[in-house]
Design goal:
single chain, globular, alpha+beta, Jelly Rolls, about 15% strand, 7 helices, two-stranded antiparallel ribbon, eight-stranded mixed beta sheet
Amino acid sequence: MQSPPPSAPTRTPPTLDLVAEIDELTADNLLEADHTRERRLRDLRVEVPRQVLPIPPAGPWPRVAPDPFPGERGLPEIDAAMLTPDIVAGALAHHGSLIVRNFLPPFRVKRLVGAVDAALDGSAQHGDTSGPSPETSPWFDPLQDGMISIFGAGDEWVRVVDSPRAMFEVIEAFQPMVEDVVQPHLGERPSMGSTKWTLRRITPNCYGGWHQDGNFLGEQIRVLNTWVALSRCGGDSGSVGMEILPQPVDHIAPSGTEGALIGFEVSRRVIERMAGERPPVDPVFEPGDALLFDQYTLHRTGSKPGLTENRYAIESWFFAPSTYPLDTAPTPILF
């Protein structure tokens, strides 16, 4: 009796092949940091979203959850050890944002402050055309997608995607919280926006106008911003912090009116009318504390006279891939 022909080998979908390579390279890089490997990891995380077909959103949005902080009229706080996806959903629905204390441990904060400085130094050297071009640096090796990293007016920043080594450090630092909280909250493994995932060093004279990121990103998105302070800031700390309107908002407020300096800025008069009995707050953030909010949250860099210290921070907008805003946050990146 003749044996049946062997079955054709099963081909792994390309995306799964790439994800497996990411996992393998990550394990190797934890043993020994290597720029070529880190650059390959960066390029893989950019390539994977291009191979993922659109998927239907997972469940209703915004997520419905009870108020975890009933009676709180200011900005609610919680320790990172107590954070859950339902607490995130409830805090955003009933208070607009949430402070998470001890989001990152001190050793991670120290490493990431060094990463911010190294990435910004690498960016400055890369842009210096007065002498020979610097060698490719693990701390600044920009993605060639036509977007820029450095800003001005006291707000220095580098896209995480332009610093392969910093990108590796950031992902390792955030991975546990993303897996346990961010991904279940969004219902999908998140993608990052290249221009909305940044390493920041803010000088005391930086001006910040009130705004909502939904003004740039759009309203019909599933997104969670995890802004992490890497230095003490806000309140009476001597460094610019983050002022927040501690109440839920479900629409884009009027911008560019009544004394606003730039088109997307929401004027102070509009903020005062919207605030009512819940005025803006300027909390003190310790190194490693985080602020979670969405595209509707009204906030600004907390500029004021007499400040003396730089502020270090990481801005991380996590998008559900099914609603990723390609027109306003180009180059999706797999977290």
